[in-house]
Amino acid sequence: MGVSEEEREQDTENILKEIVRENFPHLVKEIDPQVQEAHRTPNKRNPKRTTPRHIIIKIPRAKNKERILKAAREKRVVTYKGAPIRLSADFSTETTQARREWQEILKVMNSKNLQPKIIYPAKLSLRIEG
């Protein structure tokens, strides 16, 4: 999210490779950031909206996607041509809502350093030391 609309539509497939090169040079040697499909959403641009449309990128290997997203979380500030952008997984509406419902519980557990995480399908895991 946040990639300028000036980027040509046919270049959306190359954007991921440029983001990985710019932000995670160590990953370039380890993975080949191949793109199966890439497009902006929604299809038509709304002239009233000032923010750029999101780019949805489908990566053929789930492991590569997870490594890129993990590196993005660790780096915290990801850029594209010097401008800050955000990388995130594209979840269904139902999954997003289910994750949102856990937020308060996870926040409390994090504050107590319990290291919670949600494991598919709907299991909660936490770590207690001591």
From TrEMBL:
- Residue stretches making up the L1 transposable element RRM domain: 2-90
Q: State the superkingdom.
A: Eukaryota
Q: Taking every annotated instance into account, which residue ranges of this chain make up the domain L1 transposable element dsRBD-like?
A: 94-130
Region annotation Disordered: residue ranges? 32-52
**Residue ranges, compositional bias (Basic residues):** 41-52
**Family membership:** Belongs to the transposase 22 family.
Q: What is this protein called?
A: L1 transposable element RRM domain-containing protein
